[in-house]
Design a protein that fits this description.
Blueprint lengths: L1 H5 L4 E4 L4 H9 L3 E4 L5 H17 L6 E3 L12 H9 L5 E6 L1 H4 L4 H18 L11 E4 H9 L13 H11 L4 E7 L5 H9 L3 H28 L1
Amino acid sequence: MRAQLHGYPLIIVDGSPVSMIAEELTAYGAIVYRQQTKGIGPSRREAYFYALEYCKTHSDCRVVQWLEPEKHGMLRFIKVITAPIISGEADVVIATRSAASRETYPVFQQETEAYANKVYMEATGLNVPDVMVGPVAFSIQAVGKYLVLMNPADYGVEDTYIQGYAPILAHRDGLRVIASPELDFQYPPMQRVEEESTLSEEMMQKRIWQRDALCDAFRKLGALNSERR
């Protein structure tokens, strides 16, 4: 509903077994597709494929902005994030939280994300301090090659957060990858309370594994840029 109010077409790949969710989202104006694949990377490629197909039939569509359901508050920053692509100054824009924004996140998440962000910049040479925020905007020219057709297995990395991998490969090929201005996005307070109160040792280990797997991927993909230079 919020996307509709802002005038943004919203494309969703739905993997829920509850059909009512898709029906409700459609009633709100979203374009909903049934998820056909399993896993983080494959399902995200599906979403980018449908977004690209939408853009092919809408001449005014120039940018695809990745968002995550729990970060719906990012909708009010889309114009800021996408502006450099629309003006022709960039091909990829990675959202960037302000320091105050990052402090609204669960403490453990702050720590793991700060480490991964540091590794990303060191490994890739990209001046983008907050890839772990999630939302990234791509020109439609970048979506096909670096997202829809991406196969992380070709680079020996986990097939997960492809929106973080794609900017590295795009930069390697000379596309312009920049950070957005700092955004004062606020993590939902109640969600933080719930997550911190239920954070188990098992979940902490899982998040550490995710961080380490991503950092490994960032280093492997970043090495491609070093070879190219």
